[in-house]
Give the backbone structure.
Amino acid sequence: MFPDWSVAGFVNDRLVQIVKRYGGVFRDVSERILVTILLPLERALQAVPPWLFLAFVAGLAWHATRKPLSTVLYVVCLYLIGAVGLWDKLIQTFALVLVSTAFSIVIGIPVGIIAARSRILRRLLTPVLDVMQTLPSFVYLIPVLMLFGLGKVPALFATVIYAVPPLIRLTILGLRHVDRDVMEAAQAFGVTRWQMLTRVSLPLARPSIMAGINQTTMMALAMVVVASMIGARGLGEDVLAGIQTLDVGRGLQAGVAIVILAIVIDRITQAYGRPRRRRLAMKRQEQE
């Protein structure tokens, strides 16, 4: 009844050819990223005393939210992660999420800026982003595993591919909804295209871009457990081990730690995404 139109064999053959031809290049890139970025950052974060890290989080949370209760709550929750013996794994997860988010920002914001100006590129990107956001996260593990093998770098690439689409979309959305009257007024003063972008468009689109960074960070955290299946260490490793060995306590502790880290990052990035005037008005309302 059905014709045999399966493309599995074709895709496998092409992927094997790519690995044979460029496998060495992919492995060299993986090694360089691991040695020059991931491992140095992870070691630097692990060398920071926990009290200093918690103090930095407290300062960042206070600067973002101006809420003493929330600041204390974030620090206490992170302290509890260390109290159950998961501090080192927390740092490993945080380093992977930090690098993944940084890569996503470097890719997503420039692509969003270009796509906001080009209708053709925007039309081409829309179906690609739809597919990237629709595919199950496990699907991203297959090509990166074939090209880069096991380890932290394949997990990094899979996380970036999975997490970058919302940042591109929200960057486009923010730039396309900048007030035209403001842009016309800036043009009347004779600003260049670069000045228009850096001093007018991007500052006005900052709430939308920060929302994109927030969503990208959350999606990177969502890949933590999935990425542990191909060698990414951290909290996801404990969740996966808890599933495999039916160790409910171990998996639950690591899962709650991931949730705490996600909440802390989410609240801080959301606070920075709000306009400064709005944050001050909210503070005054709370005081009244």
In short: The CA atoms of residues 187 and 285 lie 37 Å apart. The two ends are 73 Å apart (CA to CA).
